[in-house]
Amino acid sequence: MGEGLGRSLKLYLDTHVVAWLGSGQSKRIARPALRAIDSSELAISPMVLVELEYLYELRKLAKPALAIVEQVEKQLGLAISDQPFLAVANTALYEAWTRDPFDRIIVAHAKSDGYSKLVSSDTHIQRNYSMTIWD
Fold first, then answer.
1. Average pLDDT over residues 7-36
2. In angstroms, rounded to a whole number, what is the distance separating the alpha carbons of residues 66 and 128?
3. pLDDT tens readout for residues 39-88
4. Sheet of 79-80: strands edge to edge?
5. How many domains does the chain fold into?
6. Which of 4, 16, 25, 118 is buried most, with the most CB atoms less than 10 Å from its CB?
7. Domain for residue 80, yes or no?
């Protein structure tokens, strides 16, 4: 993947995408999603940090959340969104299509930030958030 020079569009990344990028598994990411990642300003919801740490605690990830996020930040310029949490929470109130608190907040974060695009392979998210990019 290139350096992403000239990035303009804000693009949120779902937790599994950050985990794959942070562990050198970018081949698991669909080509259209990789192209979007390479040409966009990348952001994550702080909820991605929480979910990554949760997965690390469950021993489903080899590295803690901050190590993964710092690595992806160095590689691709990833930023943690500073959207006000009240705006995100108010948006999340209407995401009744899921019982997964991580998905609910991650989608609400992208939505509350101007209906930003979100890279996710999660078909449930894809069906319920039209700004999802995968394939």
1. 93
2. 29
3. 999 999 999 999 999 999 999 999 999 999 999 999 999 999 999 999 99
4. 79-80, 40-44, 9-13, 117-119, 132-133
5. 1
6. 118
7. yes
